[in-house]
Amino acid sequence: MAxxxxxxxxxxxxxxxxxxxxxxxxxxxxxxxxxxxxVALIIAYVPYTKIDWDAYMSQVTGFLGGERxxxxxxxxxxxxxxxxxxxxxxxxxxxxxxxxxxxxQILFGILYSIxxxxxxxxxxxxxxxxxxALILLSLSKRVHSIFVLRLFNDCFAxxxxxxxxxxxxxxxxxxGLILFSGAVxxxxxxxxxxxxxxxxxxxxxxxxxxxxALACAALVQILVGLPFLVxxxxxxISGAFNxxxxxxxxxxxxxxxxxxxxxxSKQFAISLLIAHLGLLAAFAHYKWCRHEGGLxxxxxxxxxSALSSSSSSGLKILKEEYIMTTLFAGNFIGIVCARSLHYQxxxxxxxxxxxxxxxxxxxxxxxxxxxxxxxxxxxxxxxNIYSSALLLCLHLLILWGLWSAQSQYPYDGHDSEDPxxxxxxMTAFVQRLxxxxxxxxxxxTWGRNRHTPLxxxxxxxxxxxxxxxxxxxxxxxxxFNALDEMGNRVxxxxxxxxxxxxxxxxxxxxxxLAPSKVMTEEGSA
Length: 525
Fold this sequence. Notes:
Layout: H1 2-14, H2 23-45, H3 53-64, E1 74-75, E2 78-79, H4 84-97, H5 101-126, H6 141-150, H7 154-168, H8 173-184, H9 194-204, H10 207-231, H11 233-240, H12 260-263, H13 266-288, H14 295-307, H15 320-336, H16 353-359, H17 364-378, H18 385-404, H19 419-440, H20 456-479, H21 483-504, H22 515-524
Antiparallel strand pairs: 1-2
Helix pairs in contact: 2-5, 3-4, 4-5, 5-6, 5-7, 7-8, 8-10, 9-15, 10-11, 13-15, 15-18, 16-17, 17-18, 19-20, 19-21
């Protein structure tokens, strides 16, 4: 009876939801629930601060009234400077809430919980942070204020962006680009992710896949802006995608210590742009493309592949951690080089800050100090020369930590790469084994005129090669489409090993991939 009762208990434990088997996921779920309670308390007891809400509603009123000239869509804070997706989002909010602030706060509170859920999903998926560090995602006073006390459009843009990043973890590049373009249609700051995203797409897809994904993103922009592009295209493009805007010096959080005449000068803007492009190029060359031989060799290989009729059409699977590290670091470079960061701009990179800190080689205590320091600077109001200088120093320290961290290998082992490249990789692997065996065996040589039993080193080489080939074959079998290709790879590998031995003067040795021949010669010796 005891045995039967034990058997009855086992299925119930196996039917537990998978999330409760992962302590980090369970903690993240509890964190989302507790933070939702905190958001409810903030909405109920903390007074709302009116900043841009009235301007948003004025601009939406003009749009709903039939105005399609972007120069005529204005509010208390000036003309409309966001793409058309912003108008659609806030028109829907106005329809739901009637333009009232309190129901809009509830709506933004729900949006906050959705965004936090997506971000925690990304963190759990990549497994960069320890479970307890997830609580850092809920400790920002400024970010809570941006969502439920300010109602900025940055909240919708970043939520949609984080949804795009989550889809990229599953290698859904076209869907990710569509969501990314949707985020850009709400606020243009999302374009800071564009350079690293383009690099990742070039690593994962061939040129035709990259072009089709970019076409999907462009189509989203055309459809979103179509009512304005048809009637007043110049006004829409120049207003919604104005790259030359000069922000007010008073509101700058990061460069308040720069004198205002220098801050608003074109020379300062050009200097920051050069620094931005230079840092992106340096990280791309020495960090993100290091395993391909650098940025220029990578681009050259992509050009050759595009011109070649035999270019691979399959996807290369990128590691989830590599995807997030590249995207978050690329965006952070743009943050460091931004001419002006306003208080709501903190949402552009706050949710990536713990991830970036844990990608540095810094000790945990220093990571926490940097996190608290950044949060402190963003809560100094109004900002001053000391808080802005401190924020810049903290940013630069984090950037140096990312630069000095070890580069990651970008590709996952289960990708559909070119068979020739796979054979070359296996050949290089065996060549390294042969070289290591030659260094470690001292007087041991495999001469063509010697017929001695297999030594310990030879047996070890055979075992390692067998394990390697069996492993590759097993993972290829999981794809159910690579069995025939695997046989060709093994044949090519055997030929490559014979050629390597010929170069090393060991042609008479038995092939590691011919076990029957090895057993015959061993028995006759």
